[in-house]
Design brief:
This protein is α+β, with helices and mostly antiparallel strands and 346 residues long. 33% of the residues lie in helices and 23% in strands. It contains eleven helices and 13 strands. The strands form two sheets. The protein has a seven-stranded mixed sheet, with helices on both faces. A six-stranded mixed sheet has the order 1-2-3-6-4-5, covered by helices on one side. The longest helix is centred in the middle third of the chain and has 18 residues, at 113-130.
């Protein structure tokens, strides 16, 4: 559709574009303190997935935004991935999306109107699949292509799922396989197979709408999605919010099959190193754990899976929800335990 590869127009791609966690903390500083608004149920204080504002006893509004540079060259697929990723933050709060707005930044001197339109059509297709209108947005002429959504949703205040409410003894369940950042790096280097690309697209365009069903399960205590900071980074946010230690059994962590081969061959984006530099001091790896396994756990995911902390008696119900929603790789990966906030990988 375009002679110019979208990924060649950007210095990063997908959620790997995120500012590293440590630098982000320096930038935010005291901004992450709890804001003095009693109806603001979720703000910046626990690095949760979206802001949530109380409207009445049966409704709270969820607001979030997410956008990034191309992770693939196909414009329609880029739009689909970006939109799916943005809506995930609403589902990660246990909510239901009701509307979206487009965020569009394009180098109009380099990309044709047909290519730009295809990106927008990809986003529109995902909103249609989610049953919501793409009701407007804002566009600018930018140096690098950027696309994403402002996503608005609703949730019953009693069903709101934060990332900070896990309890000791909770079981950790991950909804999608890891490896998207590794596969994206291989794609940029012309080393991703056709089968690998298909796995990557299927993973990144699968809506995390199961989060709405999970919100109705009382045994689900905490919920987040795994994106640019990798599984370790987002689990650390969960641990810090709850004041607990997360223990992960690597052998139980689902991985996209093609990504497993690629990471062992050395593929992976620079964001893996930035992630580990930011939070590696709070992660303890078992002796002898291969470096490729450590890198995989810090791999930035784009439109990654939901991470659930659920009481042991609710595990079967959560896994059933995932299976019925078509998440075939969903699996138990560890537990939350008493201890200093951090992650232990065995």
């Amino acid at each position: 559709m375009s002679e110019i590869k979208l990924t060649q127009l950007s210095h990063g791609g997908g959620c790997g574009c995120k500012i590293a966690p440590a630098m982000l903390q320096q930038i935010l500083g005291d901004v992450k303190d709890k804001l003095p608004y009693p109806h603001l149920l979720v703000g910046t204080e626990t690095s949760d997935d979206a802001a949530v504002y109380w409207l009445n006893d049966s409704q709270a509004i969820i607001a979030t935004t997410d956008f990034f540079m191309p992770i693939v060259d196909d414009p329609f697929d880029f739009g689909r991935i970006a939109a799916t990723n943005a809506l995930s933050d609403v589902y990660a709060m246990g909510g239901t999306p009701i509307m979206a707005l487009a965020i569009v930044g394009m180098p109009i001197n380099k990309l044709s109107t047909e290519v730009i339109r295809a990106i927008l059509q990809g986003g529109e297709s995902v909103c249609k699949a989610a049953g919501i209108p793409l009701a407007g947005g804002h566009s600018i002429d930018s140096v690098e292509p950027i696309y994403g959504l402002v996503a608005i949703g609703i949730v019953h205040p009693d069903r709101l799922k934060k990332n900070s409410a896990a309890r000791a003894g909770d079981v950790l369940i991950l909804g999608k396989g890891l490896g998207v950042g590794i596969m994206a790096d291989a794609l940029k280097k012309d080393a991703l197979s056709i089968d690998g690309y298909a796995q990557m697209i299927a993973n990144t365009t699968q809506l995390n709408s199961v989060g709405t069903a999970l919100s109705a399960i009382d045994d689900v205590h905490a919920l987040t999605d795994v994106t640019g900071f990798g599984l370790l980074g987002h689990l650390l946010e969960m641990c810090r919010g709850a004041g607990l230690t997360g223990e992960v059994e690597f052998k139980r962590v689902p991985v996209l099959p093609v990504a497993l081969k690629l990471v062992k061959s050395g593929y992976g984006p620079g964001a893996i190193g930035r992630n580990m530099q930011s939070y590696g001091h709070d992660v303890h790896f078992a002796d002898g754990l291969p470096s490729w396994q450590q890198r995989l756990l810090a791999d930035p995911q784009t439109s990654g899976g939901l991470l659930v902390a659920v009481a042991p008696e609710g595990v079967d119900e959560v896994l059933s929800c995932f299976q019925q929603a078509g998440f075939g790789q969903a699996a138990v990966i560890g537990t939350m335990k008493d201890g200093m906030p951090g992650v232990r990988v065995i």
